Amino acid sequence: MPGGVLGTSYPAPLRTCLEGLAASAPAATAQRYGLPLPPAQLLQRRAADLLAMGFERTAAGAAPEPAPCYVYAPQPPCCDLSYDAASGHVRCGTCWRPVLEERKA
Fold first, then answer.
1. Which of 2, 83, 88, 103 is the most buried (most CB within 10 A)?
2. What is the pTM of this model?
3. What DSSP character marks residue 93?
4. How far is 65 from 10, CA to CA, in rounded Å?
C-alpha cells in the first residue's frame, strides 16, 4: 500500500463483506453466524466504521473502545501488499513479522 496506509482501499471481496455486514441488522447477523446480539452489534458497527473511517482510524479509536487489557500497539505496516485476483489472496511482498506484546493482565 502506498505509504503503508490501507485507508478504505480494501480488496473487492473484503469490501463486499464489509458492506454486507454494515447494512445487515445486528439481529440478522447474530442469527446468521450464531452470535449473541452484543458481538453482532459490534461487528456491524466495526464494518460500518471500516468503510467510513478506514482501517487505521478504526483501529486507532473507533468507539466503543476496548478494555485496556485488550489494547495493543499498532503493527508496523507491510510496505508491499498486492492483491492476487486469481487466488483472491492479499500477499505481502516483503518479509513482514508481527510485533508480539506480552499478554496484558
1. 83
2. 0.64
3. S
4. 23
* Assigned domain for 7 exists: yes
Give the residue numbers spanning the domain of 44: 2-69
DSSP string over 10-34? --HHHHHHHHHHHHS-HHHHHHHHT
Long-range own/partner contacts, residues 73-77 (CB < 8 A, 24 or more apart) = 73/99, 73/101, 75/99, 77/1, 77/4, 77/5
| Domain assignment of residue 98, yes or no | no
C-alpha cell belonging to residue 78: 507491510
Q: What is the mean pLDDT of each run of 10 residues along the chain (105 residues)?
A: 82 95 96 91 93 90 69 69 81 70 68
At 12, which amino acid appears?
Answer: A
